[in-house]
Backbone:
DNA sequence: CGGTCCTTTGACACAGGTCAAGTAATGTGG
DNA sequence: CCACATTACTTGACCTGTGTCAAAGGACCG
């Protein structure tokens, strides 16, 4: 049985590859070469829109990497597991982000929908063929990959050298910046994931994440509208904490 | 004054871009399309060979990103700093590896030679022009970037979820695997970096790294031939420790 | 309205950090 | 060739930030 419902032809499958959204930083690079109508058509002809229910897996680490996806709605978490169950979430993906890009035969990580999620799905082989024909696509993917690489290095700094408080604050600012890049408000940050996901993303435990939220609230640095909505009361102070001043 | 000595035309500047070495995993992908003689010539015409003395900086985070480099000899560390001096080394680069790839105006990290090092240097603008003309180059870079991204995710798992012992063992195996990929012996692992660099790579302190080496030696899992040469006595047991069994 | 899941809070433990001292290897000037 | 820095590494004693374990709300739901 299939994990998710498929609609084809795509209703409004606005893949990042077809038309980069100009509010996102990544796209500033990609903007160098938007696709012409014919290229758009060819790309659209191989893609499928996919709807995924909350908490459903999209693929698992070590599954054969047959598709590449582009998030077009909702949110996705990607993570790796150790044999004993320890988990590290390596990224939260929002509309515009890609997943499943690899040059191995298998995926390097597992992916799961956080809430109701919409994806554009590309058969990998067909996409690779198209890459040969439309070099601009490759440019765009390289731009995205190099952007992700920079983000990964920031995350290594966070995981290797920052305190719990610095991690949580960095995370909140990261989510806030992400919202802004997607044309939303910076201030009441919406967290589509639960504490356990935040903990596994920051290399902490749920208890430490919870205690740190409480501590930040007590210090009047943030306000918890509810569990998933955070108001950033002193952005400047928060920025200093996050960067380790 | 220049930080490093330059020789041009390149004596034997065997850039990975020109001819991928077939012993390296990354190249398995890149092997899809080797450059033809004309393409090789054009690429060679923009590259310069550079020699760097031990512990000399190659570039600093936030410097304008004017060049892209390919390590051809020696070893390089790349790292990020927090304002208070905390450091996270995000990678050790060996022959075949790239550094300086970015789509921002500035480098995202600092780079420094570990020992005597040789690099191929490409002016970024010229390389970007060449990318438009030779799509195969872009393919190769994308392959490398996606390989690095997978490695970055492994490192996040290590930094976020592994114990000190697991980190050190993972590191030793990583260095051993790297040696094998470059056609060297798996067993006496050579560590071109000092304890402080290892600590900053693993998100630990020098003391913890040192104690962990001692502990592994006491348990007869490794033997320290000298400070920089480690013999892996029980590869199987070490592999289990690294993967968290 | 009882059950389940998520979050918060408290008490305590411990892995790894900090501080300090000792040792070994290497270089340097006399 | 030897005093003597200097630097890198190791080891010990102690401390602390974060993890562990346990319990108590709350929110949601059948």
Residues:
């Amino acid at each position: 049985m299939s994990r998710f419902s498929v609609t084809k032809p795509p209703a409004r499958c606005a893949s990042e590859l077809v038309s980069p959204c100009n509010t996102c930083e990544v796209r500033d690079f990609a903007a160098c070469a938007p696709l012409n109508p014919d290229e758009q058509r060819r790309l659209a002809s191989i893609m499928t829109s996919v709807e995924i229910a909350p908490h459903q897996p999209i693929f698992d680490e070590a599954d054969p990497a047959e598709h590449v996806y582009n998030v077009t709605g909702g949110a996705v978490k990607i993570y790796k597991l150790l044999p004993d169950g320890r988990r590290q979430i390596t990224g939260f993906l929002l509309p515009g982000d890609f997943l499943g890009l690899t040059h191995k035969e298998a995926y390097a990580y597992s992916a799961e929908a956080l809430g109701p999620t919409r994806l554009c799905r590309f058969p990998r082989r067909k996409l690779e063929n198209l890459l040969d024909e439309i070099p601009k696509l490759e440019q765009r993917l390289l731009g995205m990959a190099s952007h992700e690489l920079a983000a990964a290095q920031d995350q290594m700094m966070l995981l290797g050298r920052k305190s719990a408080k610095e991690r949580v604050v960095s995370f909140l600012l990261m989510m806030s910046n992400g919202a802004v890049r997607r044309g939303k408000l910076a201030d009441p940050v919406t967290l589509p994931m639960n504490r356990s996901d935040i903990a596994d993303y920051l290399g902490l435990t749920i208890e430490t994440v919870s205690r740190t939220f409480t501590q930040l609230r007590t210090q009047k640095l943030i306000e918890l509208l509810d569990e998933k909505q955070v108001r950033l009361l002193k952005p400047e102070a928060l920025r200093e904490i996050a960067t380790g001043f």
About this structure: The radius of gyration of chain B is 19 Å. The CA atoms of residues 26 and 144 of chain B lie 6 Å apart. Residues 194-196, 206-207, 210-211, 213-214, 227 of chain B lie near DNA strand D (CB under 10 Å from a C1'). The helical segments of chain B are 25-30, 37-46, 124-133, 135-161, 164-181, 195-202, 206-218, 235-243.
